[in-house]
Amino acid sequence: MTTDELRQSYLDFFVSKGCVLKPSDVLVPRDDPTVLFTPAGMNQFKREFMGLGDPTFKKAVTCQKCLRTGDIDNVGRTAFHETFFEMLGNFSFGDYFKREAIHWAWEYLTKILKIDPDRLSVTVYLDDDEAFAIWNNEIGLPSSRITRMDEADNFWPASAPSLGPNGVCGPCSEIFFHGNGPKEVEIWNLVFTQFNRVGFRQLEPLPHKNIDTGMGLERAAACLQGVPTVFMTDLFRPIVARVAEVLDQPYQADSPDGVRMRRMADHARALTFCIHENVRPSNEKQGYVLRRLLRRAVLDGYHLGRREPFLYQLPPIVAQQMSGPYPEVVGSVPRIQAVIREEEEDFLRNLEHGMKLLEDTFRKTKAAGSDVLDGSTAFKLHATHGIPIEVVESLAAERELTVDRPGFEAAVEEHARISRGTSEAAAVFEVGPLDELKKAHPQGTRFLGYETTRATGKVIGLIQGPALVDSVAAGTGDHAQAAIVLDQSPFYGESGGQVGDTGRLTGPDGFLFLVTDTQKKNDFLLHLGRVEHGAIVPGATVEAEVDAERREAIRRAHSATHLLHHALHKHLGEHAQQAGSKVEPDRLRFDFANPEAVGRDRLKAIEATVNNLVLGDAPITWTIMPLDQARKLGAMALFGEKYPENVRVVTMGDYSRELCGGTHLDHVSQIGVFAILSEESVAAGTRRITALTGRAALDYLKERDAVLEEIAATLKVPVAQAPARVAALLEEVKTLKKQATQRKSAQTLGSIDSFLNEAVEVDGVQLVARVIDGGTVEEMRQLCDVMRKKAGERLAILLGSVVEGKVNLVAAFTPDLVAQRKANAGQWLKILAPIVGGGGGGKPEMATAGGKLPDKLPEVVRRAPETLRDVLSS
């Protein structure tokens, strides 16, 4: 059975048992601060487990994309550890329980997958006699194949009865497959959440018992396909083969290089899916995890002798292998490759620089009379430049140094919270004021804003700070700040890139609440703002009135994003997928995939296409339909967003169809005018267009015309001739500058003899250290060349200047000093440039640097002799 067949058979089986098929949640949950990445199938159902979720279903089945980094060091070394993986799961929210969960698991394994029952064994919690009896008496599994385990192994959360946390918990039963190898493989875990822990070993039965199960797809596939590791399954094997092909080295499973290749294959999958969901490498949260994975993979290639980017070549095979269940990833491959390649190039540069810094660190440590490298310094080299601690320790040992490993581990632990994939189990089921409100009002707030900007609604909740309150009233300070929740409202809550509405709520006895923002949380619309007059209590009826003029401007901008998306596809290609947006009144920001700058001419063409569509006056319509039907119709979706089973599809003419919950116009002509302000890079492979619509676009165009007319008047030419006249003036200025530079260079070159005559001797070397008034880097480099040629040998030069408030430094040595005394101009500037708040580098014979502290330039010149001694002595 292939992995794709296994996935589908599992889903089909549990659908046949009445479970509702739910799509995989996004890999990066948008509304769950307790996790960085989705670590398990149950996470998208945490509200259902709490009795606060969708009441229309009580049992579900999914195949969930997951990412965990807790065992990252074992990836590639062991048979079954992965970072990115898929989790098959079936769930019950107060519906079926232990008996059905066990019977169905056994039926699926032995009847559907046809696994020999003699190759299966199970574990149960030490005190779970009920589970033991079901396995033993009803399934017929002999007691010799049922192992009782303690709370550390067979309870969720682990050791909860003794160690906590308080809250929902329960015993579990694990199912093991006995293959051809020496060790059994855990393929399925059945969790029976039946208790509420209230204290040490105090477990109270829950009124509604739940089921949470998880089967690792790749692990189960390896067992069924008779292979010893997940990396040999039909899903993974071609990716590992592609790694070997890209590195131009044979794959040998039992070698250290084989471990590295498997790790690269795993990390390539994780990178592909994360970047597809618009996560980019960075130094915090999800981006930090991504950067860590990428750097580990690149370092593996580095150990194999690869000094150029290579990892970016792997996403195509990953997307191809995963195209069955996730066809949308294929379209993201160019963007994913661009992100990976840029990060690879940066890291490889940093790695070379980091190795040089490491050598400097060793030298300074020994110079300070110490034989121990500081742990925090080692961590900085690891975190900033990607040098593993093992490499640092190995190189340190060669120089008779050791590394403060406890100090390094302490720094790692301090930083580790941002790379953890999950939070404490207790936080998973944290209850807030909206959760309390959900119990009384499970339907949430009904949104009326597609049809109207004014409606009546009943107050169902008042929130101040972290709690529900009985009333809110006018006052001073935070006392009057509140969030008001209504049973129905025309206010749009911020989502999908569109900002929240503003407006007012009015009620009995002159009550007035100014809404400054609207947010959407847990199916509720939160009207955020301040009580200006009167007071309000739950149950009261209010008139909700949106700022209609502002809403209309937002509708113009949001409708324009759909036209822009179409225009980008037309002029750039289908790869120009939306990667995010921000829609404000008559202003939009649109991020899209593209490997390079769009260019002025194409921007003009894109702007013209949008305006031509506006003139075409196509109608804008929307309808609700099943997600699968919308995808079949070609409706575009924003990757990384989670969509419900029934989605709103917005159609404009016959050229645009997108999944969108935002507010839109009735006809595209109502956009009025569309004007692009700028196009820029926001990340590797991602560009951003900022544009205006409606009144803001008209004001911008008027202002631009006024500026152009003023320029033409100043130049005393007609507007149409202004560009040509400006170009002529610029050419004239360029010529004058060149002539001035030539005169200046001639004067400066005439001073060379005096520079050399005034040189001072330092350790047998003649030193010229001077400030060159207004000297450019190129001019000072030229001076260095002439002086070195004239002196012939034993000459060191340091020149500095200030141009437009910035410091320029140039250092140079004659070739004999580089060859005989190992002098290095780049090393010299690394000592001096920080004095002026800068840095730089170059070759041993000549290097340049910049800085931002002009007042410190004299100090650089003053310290030139002493620092030259350091460079010559080292």
From TrEMBL:
According to its UniProt record, where is this protein located? Cytoplasm
Reactions that this protein is recorded to catalyse: tRNA(Ala) + L-alanine + ATP = L-alanyl-tRNA(Ala) + AMP + diphosphate
Q: Which organism is it from?
A: Isosphaera pallida (strain ATCC 43644 / DSM 9630 / IS1B)
Protein keywords: Aminoacyl-tRNA synthetase, ATP-binding, Cytoplasm, Ligase, Metal-binding, Nucleotide-binding, Protein biosynthesis, RNA-binding, tRNA-binding, Zinc
Q: Which residues cross the membrane?
A: none
Which residues belong to any copy of the Alanyl-transfer RNA synthetases family profile domain?
Answer: 1-703
Task: Provide the protein name.
Answer: Alanine--tRNA ligase
SMART domains recorded: tRNA_SAD
Task: Kindly list the positions annotated as binding Zn(2+).
Answer: H558, H562, C660, H664
